[in-house]
Please model this.
Amino acid sequence: MRRSPAVVVAAVLVALLTGCSAPGADTTSVAPPWPRPTDLAHRAQEAGLENVWGERLAEHVHTHLTITDGDTPVVVPANVGHSKSQRFAAQLHTHDTSGILHVESPTRRTFTLGQFFDEWGVSLGPAHVGGLRGELTVWVDGKRYFGNPRSIELTNLRQIGLDVTTIGEVPHRPAPFDWPPQYH
Model:
């Protein structure tokens, strides 16, 4: 049976919009934007995180994440791992689209960029970010980083840049993030 192009396009859009937040969704072939997951508890569990809503905090740090696809910024969505209405806050989450990753935990431990991407449901590896294709250049606090980006520790006021460029294009170090005063 042959389907009309409009039906095929609609089916693909539905799959992309719902599939990105589905448990175990494969984002290695999906281009941004990548929405926040709706299955917060499952995504947090997949990332080795738990709900710490209302608990006393022993650790509260902030890291900034910038993702660019060439010269195009990619938005890190609000409320990855966080929902006031569900009274849910994973130890690692976002509140807004500023790119600030919040680590709020009742115990001190190491949290990584890989955990955030697992929670978000977007794949991250040494050579890719989700479905972005090209060369991945990683920056940590303004310096080139050559390890696996999944292992980058989230520390206070750290700035991480993931720049995907076409092969042969010169990567650009992201401008330093201007932290709002309340984070100093």
Observations:
- Residues 5-183 form one domain.
- Residues 59 and 108 are 6 Å apart (CA to CA).
- The longest helix spans residues 5-19.
- The helical segments are 5-19, 40-46, 113-120.
